[in-house]
Amino acid sequence: MAVTDEAILKIKKMIIDGRLRPGDRLPPEKELSESLGLSRSSLREAVKALEIIRVLDVRRGDGTFVTSLDPGLLLEAMSFVVDLHEDASVLELFAVRRILEPAAAAMATGRATDADIERLGAMVDSVDGGTSIDSLVDHDVSFHHGIAELAGNHYLTSLLDNLSGGTLRARIWRGLTQENVLERTLAEHRAIVDALALGDAELVRARAAVHIAGVEDWLRRAAS
């Protein structure tokens, strides 16, 4: 395990143990590095990585603080960063989603009723600028499940649900770190619903592929 990843795990354990809570200020660098048995350089790298994913808030001249985000989200994001460096299999999950979900969306096009399309549109409309990251992820999961169900193939729906479950931490990390992720997600979901309303299966397939590929591309660049 990389020294930086070890440092991240040790800070994560402090949060799990309750020694650090959202809003708390981290001890001085020298004190923290000694208590964790880490070099100051590796601790600095860990703090820098955790600042990028918004687990820590570095305030120049004031100190470093644990963010006020939900503790569950903080821990998921920290685990994902470490796991991604050790195992990039989540990229393979997104590659499979990119193959299967556009096909499922195209299958759903001929089966979706006006009521189905209205329901999907209402799901998109229910999310606004004040939506939390965990609520956005819940919306994303429900939206994709709703389209998969409309394909009318229970095995395909179950497979896609399983694939979706394996990408939850990646979605949380994206929500924490990517600029304008809420607006981008909603715009792409709305574009898929609009294509469904037109009854154009190939357009639906294309827009679903662009949506999944965009997330996959972001993750691939973030992991490099």
Q: Keywords for this structure?
A:
224 residues; mainly alpha; Arc Repressor Mutant, subunit A; Four Helix Bundle (Hemerythrin (Met), subunit A); 2 domains; two-stranded antiparallel sheet; 11 helices; 2 strands; 74% helix; transcription
Walk me through the structure.
Residues 1-69 form the HTH gntR-type domain. Keywords: DNA-binding, Transcription, Transcription regulation. This is FadR/GntR family transcriptional regulator. It comes from Gryllotalpicola koreensis. The protein is mainly alpha-helical. Helix content is 74%, strand content 4%. It contains eleven helices and two strands. α6 runs antiparallel to α7, α6 packs antiparallel against α10 (181-198) and α7 runs antiparallel to α8 (154-165).
Taken as a percent bin, the fraction of beta residues is under 5%
Number of helix segments? 11
Structural Rg: 20 Å
CATH class of the largest domain: Mainly Alpha
Total number of strands: 2
The CATH topology of the largest domain is Four Helix Bundle (Hemerythrin (Met), subunit A)
Span from first to last CA?
17 Å
Shape: elongated
CATH architectural name of the largest domain: Up-down Bundle
Could you give a short account of the major beta sheet? 2 strands, antiparallel
The averaged pLDDT comes out at 85
Tell me the helix content.
Answer: over 70%
- Order of SSEs, N→C? HHHEEHHHHHHHH
Tell me the name of the CATH homologous superfamily of the largest domain: GntR ligand-binding domain-like
The unreliable regions are none
